[in-house]
Amino acid sequence: xxxxxxxxxxxxxxxxxxxxSFILLGVLIVSGCTTNTPKKLIRTPAVAxxxxxxxxxxxxxxxQTFLNNVPAEQTNKDNICAxxxxxxxxAFSGQTxxxxxxxxxxxxxxxxxxxxxxxxxxxxxxPDLTEKGIYVDCANAYxxxxxxxxxxxxxxxxxxxxxxxxxxxxxTGTDEHSVEAEIPFLQVVFGNNLKIVPIIMTDHSYETCKxxxxxxxxxxxxKNILIVASSDLYHGYDYEECKTSVNEACxxxxxxxxxxxxxxxxxxxxxCGGAPITTxxxxxxxxxxxxxxxxxxxxxxxxxxxxxxxxVGYSSFAFTKNTKTEFKPLDAQAQTExxxxxxxxxxxYAKKKEILKFKPAFPILSEKRGVFVTLLTKDDDLRGCIxxxxxxxxxxxxxxxxxxxxAFQDFRFQPLTEKELNNIKIKISVYLTNVxxxxxxxxxxxxxHGIIMEKNGRASTFLPEVPTEQKWTKEETFYYLSQKAGLPxxxxxQGAKFLVYKTQVFGE
Length: 508
What we know:
By secondary structure, the chain is an alpha/beta fold. Helix content is 32%, strand content 21%. It contains 14 helices and 20 strands. It has helices spanning 12-20, 56-68, 90-102, 153-160, 183-190, 206-219, 239-254, 258-267, 274-286, 300-304, 332-352, 395-408, 465-470, 474-484; strands at 42-43, 80-85, 111-117, 134-136, 141-143, 148-151, 166-168, 195-201, 225-230, 235-236, 291-299, 311-320, 371-377, 382-388, 424-431, 436-438, 450-455, 458-462, 497-501, 503-507. The strands form three sheets. Strands 1, 2, 3, 4, 5, 6, 7, 8, 9, 10, 11 and 12 form a twelve-stranded mixed β-sheet that branches. A hairpin with a 4-residue loop joins strand 5 (141-143) and strand 6. Helix 8 packs antiparallel against helix 9 (274-286). The radius of gyration is 25 Å and the shape is globular.
């Protein structure tokens, strides 16, 4: 990407003004959701001429250049439900953002919901958004130098009706740039085939993220929507610290680790839009769009070549729905290697409290698949069982990790002792498919599929062999899934979500 980072834009002089002064250039004409006037009210941009060119042709050419620079092999992702894109001045983060927006070319959505964080106000001429919570734009349309785009006001009003922490953006508007920066990209990609709902979060609590996610899920059920989370990453004066922080943020997002990402957002300087990203991930989890595709990451120091002074990190991601993916079975050599890794990992920790690191002996061990590691006694009694469903970690890393967890972190058992090492057997279940949703329980095949049930924030799973070993019927399997999740035994009958997977099982 080094060549791309050297792009020089025609509006650098304007960016100098942007850096030295945050004088508001635009005038905002908007309505609240409760207005009765029939006049069509249009929001005009606040940062055109500062964050991006104010001239239509120049802006379109700038965005198109960014899009053209995205390599072909980085495009054509299917089933995209959401993207993350940065919102700094286009000269700094525009190329990184283009990696996300390029994925959308040729696709259609009923509505694009754009979620951005609130930054400190840049002007005293427009009142700040003072209420803590969520602000939704209910103007009729949003105008940028590219064109004027309709706002889905009916959806905006439905969102506001969901909870008292929602507010309409006032008639005087806002000079917040985080949402605005994404709109010209969307306009170039979708043209007239676009409706949007701009949302600004003024409270970053996890509870607020959950309220917004639930409202989006409720309001958009059955609709083909796209979620855009607007966020830059690290902000500070240390280039190396920036790189470390960006890597941490991108790793947590890539692993779909919502809780640890949110914790790092609150406790560290990893993302100004951590709340929008958290909200996006909560929505995508419900949509079964947990396949994360990292697209690009960089920082302002790399873009400008000036690695001293103020540094900001950027990244872009796409989130796609999980569809069924099949993997090849492991051969005998690969099975033996993984069992050896698991055994050596457990013994090293039990004896020396050392955690071993491995390299893949065979290419197939670098594949990212789900894994369960089960420990049994010589009498075949369960001694520990921990797994990871997502296809996001290479087998040579995940098997040792799950072996440690099964031996020392399964809350149902005391940690394994050194004396027990010769009395346990290791069994590994490597996924032959990803985890994918089924629409009806009739699609579940007893003894063939592992199954996951999710309802009311609770979840439980059984590996494929468990129901057959217990001689359960399908209905009894659902009964025990509900019980294992801490739900009433008939909870599976209504409103539950089911996902399945297949495994290859081998052991010592």
